[in-house]
Design a protein that fits this description.
The protein is an alpha/beta fold. 25% of the residues lie in helices and 30% in strands. It is built from nine helices and 18 strands. Strands 12-16-15-14-17-18 form a six-stranded antiparallel β-barrel. Strands 3-2-1-4-7 form a five-stranded parallel sheet, with helices on both faces. A four-stranded mixed sheet has the order 9-8-11-10, with no helix packed on it. A hairpin with a 4-residue loop joins strand 10 and strand 11. It is globular and about 70 Å long. 39% of the residues are buried.
């Protein structure tokens, strides 16, 4: 069996600036740095995927830093563990977040097994988050750069896997990372940050889904049951969505934009409302699936903050753990367009406590009526 090198670290090189600087910093610290480029999607079946160019950029970075670069395909595991789940959730009318699963199952799952084959003691990434030693083990904390913090996407990673990981950018501002790349002459110092998911790329989301999901047209209705148009299938829409409804300019209605407020799967009806802050878009509480804890599990209600989507300020809430491991979360203030299938991620200050899939949403109007 190969002997592990305590000085070796494998950096997940994506072909982007952040992972390149992570590798640079670790090399300067004296680590024996190896790069690993992961192919998680079949390159030849999607013209929108940039994996080929990303690999060439990763090679250029490895040459500049004089480090070995390994390339491995996890496409089969990605299909099985991430993409199949993504499609099943979409078919059910929910809105999953594949980035969370990709981190748990691929980047900090099967990739870690491959890292051990390379005899490395640690795995490193260019994520903006901090891993801090605590009294009971490693703690996942927000990055110093709040605008770039990625702890939301890392909350489902196994704690023992985080303990084997280094995230060198957690203490840095994005501007400092870009400047560090420029000063070091890294060939990707001015490369734009990637956005979205590789298998979707820059194409319209509905066009991409249409390759894998059948269209199931049905009525678009107001909350009062007035038919306003026809949707292409509930899977192609998400709560709070404004664009792509094609129902503007209806007689008897104002010129305000329409938003998706609900999906009635039993009738195959998409319910829409007018106005960004319509009451039917507001939720006061949610129930979740089993909580994944990054700290000692709690069994009594407690106050914390929560995010129900990545680009959101922390929201004050009370979490009520249930005996089956799920939770009921009540927000201090109603939340807009909370979406089943997404994740509720919990925080105590800058420490990530864990999170869970959002299962059901309790409208603010229902909570008020019960009160």
């Amino acid at each position: 069996m190969p002997i592990e090198s305590r000085d070796r670290v494998v950096v997940g090189l994506t072909g982007g600036e952040d992972s390149a600087v992570a590798a640079l910093l670790l090399k300067e610290q004296g680590w024996d740095v190896h790069g690993l480029f992961m192919s998680n999607w079949e390159e030849d079946d999607d013209a929108y995927c940039t994996a080929a160019q990303d690999f060439q950029d990763a090679r250029a970075v490895a040459r500049e830093l004089a480090i070995p670069l390994h390339r491995v395909s996890f496409a089969a595991q990605y299909r099985e563990r991430v993409f199949d789940y993504f499609l099943s959730e979409q078919r059910a009318g929910r809105t999953p977040n594949p980035d969370v699963l990709c981190n748990r199952e691929i980047k900090f799952g099967v990739a870690l097994s491959y890292v051990r084959r390379l005899c490395a003691a640690r795995f490193a990434t260019g994520h903006y988050a901090r891993l801090v030693p605590g009294s009971s083990g490693v703690e996942l904390r927000k990055a110093r750069d709040g605008a770039k913090d990625q702890s939301y996407f890392l909350h489902a990673v196994a704690l023992e896997h985080l303990a084997q990981t280094i995230m060198p950018l957690g203490e840095l501002e994005k501007g400092a990372v870009r400047e560090r790349a420029r000063r070091a002459g890294l060939p990707v110092f001015d490369k734009p940050d990637s956005t979205g998911i590789c298998f979707i790329g820059e194409r319209p989301f509905r066009e991409f889904l249409g390759q894998f999901l059948e269209k199931t047209p049905g009525p678009i209705e107001s909350p009062q049951g007035e038919r306003l148009g026809t949707h292409q299938g509930l899977a192609f829409y998400t709560l709070g969505q404004r664009g792509g409804l094609q129902i503007g300019g209806r007689r008897g209605h104002s010129e305000e934009p329409w938003y998706v407020a609900a999906k009635d799967g039993a009738r195959n009806v998409l319910v829409v409302v007018q106005g960004h802050d319509h009451p039917l878009l507001a939720s006061s509480a949610i129930t979740t699936g089993p909580l994944h804890w990054l700290t000692l599990p709690r069994d009594a209600p407690f106050r914390c903050t929560a995010k129900v989507r990545y680009r959101q300020a922390d929201q004050a809430a009370v979490v009520e753990p249930r005996p089956d491991g799920t939770a009921h979360i009540v927000f201090d203030q109603p939340q807009r367009a909370v979406t089943p299938g997404q994740y509720a991620v919990l925080y105590d200050g800058d420490r990530c406590l864990g999170g869970a899939v959002i299962e059901t949403v309790i409208p603010a109007s229902a909570q008020q009526a019960a009160a």
